[in-house]
User: Fold this.
Amino acid sequence: MRAIKFAAVLLVLACSPKRYALNQVADALSDTGEGSAFARDDDPELVRDAVPFALKMMESLSDELDDHAGLRLGMARGFTQYAYAFLQQPAELGAPFEQAKVSMTRARRLYLRARDYGGDGLRLTRGVGLQELRTPAGMARLQKQDVPLLYWTLAPWAAAIAANKRDLELVGDVPDGDGADRRAGRRQLSRTCGVARLWRGTASSKREARVPRAHADGSDATAAR
Assistant:
């Protein structure tokens, strides 16, 4: 029996250094916000080529670190920023129609991936997943420190809807920020980081998309003019 206990202790000690190292790498990669190496770089093409590798590395680490909320925040933020800066924005700024259409489709998929990672992070930190965000009770469980994860969950969610407002399943799936039964939950975070405004913007995407028609529904808005 003592031999079995000793072997178990050795196993824990052997695994701990590896997990510690993975956590350190995950912490470093998750820092993609203001002040990070990516944000400071003055070569956007270099950033464009490097970010996918960093994001895939983070996804690989997330398979090993299933309880690392910071990693989920980094992925939600990273996929959202990449989709907007290097897919949606070029598509909206004069890319050929077919190329823009492909880019917007790809951006939408990445936005949804970002949303799911954000929701996973909220589930880890507060036990609130995407389903719970649709209820006042779920929103009321969030705290001020959850605002970054909430923001990087709602922002790509709204962007995915704006990228294709004809997807009625996704449009109907978004939390109804205008409903009276949602206001109690939304008010919990209304004083921090503009999350309430984003929540209302997410809901208003049901009625109006914020991208050119050519990129949203497949019709050529330029030709229509």
Observations:
- The chain has a mean pLDDT of 75.
- The chain has one domain: 66-224.
- Residues 19 and 27 are 12 Å apart (CA to CA).
- DSSP finds twelve helices and no strands in the chain.
